[in-house]
């Protein structure tokens, strides 16, 4: 059984060795586990390290979630916008809908209900077209 300590070390070595697919894959899986445990500082560190290797929609998304969860909405918006752009480039409709939903959540937290609603509606429209049903954030 792989532990988070082991996965963190594999990720660190992959980043150091510029093994991009390994760093992205391990970082993605580890990030979801750590988000589920509310280990936001660790998620931020792993995503930031992954992003030193180049743009990665999942790393931006997870770091945005960590920022949002630790009271840094402007940084969260910036990362969610980056994730959104990358999901659009790759035509990943599920990722696009999830990013839009989280952007809406940040605006809701900032008290901008009109802007939040606009993003939520876009997310729901996309999730309806892609056949994925309601947008859910994986844990």
UniProtKB/TrEMBL annotation:
Gene3D superfamilies listed in its UniProt record: Tetratricopeptide repeat domain (1.25.40.10)
TPR repeats: 57-90, 97-130
Keyword Lyase found: no
SMART domains recorded: TPR
Ribosomal protein listed as a keyword: no
Record key words, sorted: TPR repeat
Origin: domain of life: Bacteria
SUPFAM superfamilies in the cross-refs: TPR-like
Pfam family of the protein (one): TPR_12
Name under which the protein is recorded: Tetratricopeptide (TPR) repeat protein
UniProt organism field: Catenuloplanes atrovinosus
């Amino acid at each position: 059984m792989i532990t988070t300590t082991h996965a963190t070390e594999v990720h660190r070595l992959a980043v150091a060795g510029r093994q991009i697919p390994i760093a992205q894959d391990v970082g993605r899986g580890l990030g979801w586990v750590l988000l589920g445990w509310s280990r936001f500082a660790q998620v931020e560190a792993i995503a930031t390290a992954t992003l030193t290797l180049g743009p990665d929609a999942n790393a931006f998304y997870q770091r945005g979630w960590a920022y949002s969860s630790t009271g840094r909405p402007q940084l969260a918006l910036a990362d969610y916008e980056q994730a959104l752009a990358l999901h659009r480039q790759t035509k990943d409709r599920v990722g696009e809908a999830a990013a839009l939903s989280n952007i809406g959540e940040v605006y809701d937290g900032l008290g901008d209900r009109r802007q939040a609603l606009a993003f939520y509606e876009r997310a729901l429209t996309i999730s309806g077209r892609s056949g994925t049903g309601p947008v859910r954030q994986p844990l």
